[in-house]
Write a structure and sequence with these properties.
8 helices, 2 domains, Butyryl-CoA Dehydrogenase, subunit A, domain 3, single chain, flat, 5-stranded antiparallel β-sheet
Length: 203
């Protein structure tokens, strides 16, 4: 199982290339961004690529999450199983950093920031209440992959790796047998129907 942790770790890193967030109002998309876009302040707004000129838009939490994922991958290639605890730590750290880093884009956070900046008019509040923040496949894929990597690293750390692999093989074998049985029943049903169709009509 140790060598397979590279797969979810790699998926988590690649997920930053996929769409993470879209902002829309009245079903009209206003902006979208990938994981890297959110981390480095690059957002596609209404079909135009926009990027702030200073470093104020950098999301340091997501940048740290990226570094944690890359660091975990490096440990998998450089060190052996003794690094399992560190790999587990980098996975959990990346998860926490992503949650913290993306909170600022939640609808509640956006409305709170607008209120703090003086956007308290009824029109502004009405417009803000119509904004929808949707988290896309890249975001969810990164979270799922990091959770999978953390679970696998924990199994290695706790010494339950062999037991988990045996259960997984057993489940895979049961699923394969069930699929074969279902395919055989379907084939028998088709053969019986074809045989019945070939029989001459009784007169």
């Amino acid at each position: 199982m140790w060598k397979w942790i590279r797969i979810p770790k790699g998926i988590a890193l690649l997920a930053f290339l996929l769409p993470w967030m879209t902002i829309s109002c009245s079903n009209q998309k206003l902006a979208e961004a990938s994981g890297f876009g959110l981390a480095f302040g690059r957002v596609t707004a209404m079909g135009q690529a926009s990027q702030a000129g200073d470093g104020a838009t950098l999301n340091y939490w997501l940048i740290l999450a990226l570094l944690a994922i890359v660091g975990g991958l490096g440990l998998l290639f450089i060190k052996g199983r003794e690094a399992a605890k560190l790999v587990l730590g980098t996975s959990v750290a990346a998860l926490v950093l992503i949650f913290v880093g993306t909170y600022r884009y939640s609808k509640d956070s956006i409305m709170a920031e607008a209120a703090k900046n003086g956007s308290n008019g009824n029109m502004d509040q009405a417009a803000l209440s119509m904004i929808q923040v949707n988290w896309e496949i890249g975001y969810w894929l990164a979270l799922i992959a990091l959770i999978a990597a953390a679970v696998m690293a924990w199994l290695v750390t706790s010494g339950k790796e062999a037991e988990a692999e045996a259960k997984m093989r057993s489940l895979a074998a049961d699923a394969s047998d069930a699929a074969k049985g279902a395919a055989a029943k379907a084939s028998d049903a088709i053969d019986a129907k074809d045989k019945k169709d070939d029989e001459p009509p009784k007169g």
